[in-house]
Each structure stands twice: as C-alpha cells, then as structure tokens.
Write a structure and sequence with these properties.
The chain has about 80 residues and is mostly beta strands. About 0% of the residues lie in helices and about 35% in strands. It contains no helices and 7 strands. The strands form 2 sheets. It has a 5-stranded antiparallel beta sheet with strand order 1-4-7-6-5, with no helix packed on it. A two-stranded antiparallel ribbon has the order 2-3. Strand 5 and strand 6 form a beta hairpin. It is globular and about 30 Å long. The model has no long low-confidence stretch (mean pLDDT about 90).
C-alpha cells in the first residue's frame, strides 16, 4: 500500500514527553516529531502500532502514537532537516 501526504507541523519534544491520544507514545530521547496530514479517515489502519515503519523523504522512520482520523505523528529524530 502507498499513501502519500505532507508533514503539516514539526515540533521538538523532550525525552519522556507523551504524544497522541492518551499519551500512548513516550519519547525515548529528545526528538523531533512531525504531524502528517493523513489518518484512518484516509485509509491508514487505525490499529497501526507505535514503531510502524513509514518513509519521510525516502528515509525510514516510524509512527509515534495512535492514528487519529485526520493525522498521524512520526518520529523525525533520525531524519535530517
């Protein structure tokens, strides 16, 4: 499956900071996260687990937190600016 979208927001967070519904994902280190304009309303599996791989500009990274209707959050910690 291929689903393409854009990152609509980027935020720096501290280690231990929660992300997503119920704070399901906890940042393991100081990180940058990106909010992607796509969610289960667009066909992304709402049961996808934290750590599910995604590509950002061809760089492999992972899902951070629970998938919402209109957005997903990805860990950009290892992705260059």
């Amino acid at each position: 499956m291929t689903l393409r979208s854009e990152i609509i927001a980027v935020r720096d967070i501290e280690a231990g900071e929660p992300v997503g519904y119920g704070g399901r994902w906890i940042a393991p280190r100081r990180s940058r996260i990106g909010v992607v304009a796509a969610g289960y309303g667009d066909g992304y599996d709402r049961h996808a687990l934290d750590g599910t791989p995604v590509l950002v500009d061809g760089q492999r990274t992972s899902l951070a937190g629970k998938v919402s209707m209109d957005m997903v959050v990805v860990d950009l910690g290892d992705v260059p600016e």
